[in-house]
Amino acid sequence: MPAMKAGLKRFLGQVLAPGLRLVEPRDLLEALRLRADCGRDESEALFSSILVEVASIEPGGVKSLAGALGDETLVAAVRARSDANDSLFYAHHVFAEVDFLSRKHGCQPRSVLEIGPGVNLGVLFCFVAAGAEHAAGVDIEPLRDPGPAFYRSLRDYLVFVGGFSWWRYFATEGVHPGARFPTCENLAAPEDILARIDYRAPVPVDRLPFADRSVDLVFSIAALEHVPRPAETVAEMSRVLRPGGLAVHEIDVKHHGSADPLAFLSWSEADYLEKARPYGEGTSLEGILGGAWRGEIFCNRLRRSDWQALFEDRGFEVLEVETVLAVDPALVQRERFVEPFRSRPLDDLAVLSFRIVARVPPQ
Ligand SMILES: C[S@@+](CC[C@H](N)C(=O)[O-])C[C@H]1O[C@@H](n2cnc3c(N)ncnc32)[C@H](O)[C@@H]1O
């Protein structure tokens, strides 16, 4: 604690107006409140620089700080502080959503598996930081490491967003004597968190290198629409999940290569397979995002109802199917499609992206 205070004072000497005498951390908070009236850019830069230290300050002070700042300022501060690109926020958003759905359905995700993490391991990183004992990812295309700065920033961000909820609690509910503030010291170093992720590639999702009944939660975002063998994929997920284990998937079933989101349903299977190239075989997300690859990326063209039926056929209980994106069914024009799509109900065809939560029945 004395070392931290000394560090704080040194730090404040650099960032606060000359002549301001700081004796206690409490003074820092008062100074911050006053500085909140200064120009927006200036105050944000200031807050962004001190958030880590503030998270360690005694509760009474934090209470007054929480009253003085809004979330918008904090988010802006975190952005500035972490020098992060949007992938960082995306990773945390996906983690929060999947973790929430898992817990909502009574599954505590101790052992998690991500299918097709893509260009970074940010979501699995969040799961490990949140206490998962085993976090694995498989991808058909090996990842190029985004570099240590990405994971360092993500770790900082986790400290900050953890701090948000704590601050709200302390500001509104008072202080529990046993409660501790999240600080950078409580969370392992980014390289240690990363080292605990069991990432395997190239591995196709329909041949998972994991034991039967070893996983609590298997999840994916925008990956299952690309798998060439959907039935085998669902069977593999059922095999590795424990009884009561959950599958949470967001599946993007629109045509990836056209502004018309249903255009590919007009193509015969033979035409489509001729044009579309699967992931793996030299096609990677990184290449696509980098603009180096032009062409039609393979999607299996399964509709929402097909996925639901596949999960049910493999013995899953489907707990939720939520539409994320849809077109107006009146605009679908299904007479232009080939079979089997032409005969499908309009409200099924209208779905462009959805989330499915399915459970292996508990024994
Ligand atoms: C559109 S990216 C999505 C990446 C990431 N989940 C995200 O939300 O940004 C699809 C990912 O799935 C992977 N993938 C595609 N087919 C796969 C398969 N059969 N087995 C494992 N991974 C696959 C791709 O390599 C890619 O990383």
Task: Please give a structural write-up.
By secondary structure, the chain is α/β, with parallel strands linked by helices. It has 14 helices and nine strands. It folds into two domains: 2-82, no CATH class; 86-145 and 188-359, Rossmann fold, CATH 3.40.50.150. The strands form two sheets. Strands 3-2-1-4-5-9-8 form a seven-stranded mixed beta sheet. The longest helix has 26 residues, at 148-173. The protein is globular. The termini are far apart. Residues 1-45, 51-72 and 163-185 have low confidence and may be disordered. Bound molecules: S-adenosylmethionine. The site of S-adenosylmethionine has 17 residues, from loops.
Instruction: Tally the beta strands.
Output: 9
Bulk shape: globular
Would you identify the CATH H-level superfamily of the largest domain? Vaccinia Virus protein VP39
Please indicate the percent range of residues in DSSP E strands (runs of 2 or more).
15-25%
- Give the number of helices: 14
Which compounds are bound in this model? S-adenosylmethionine
CATH architectural name of the largest domain? 3-Layer(aba) Sandwich
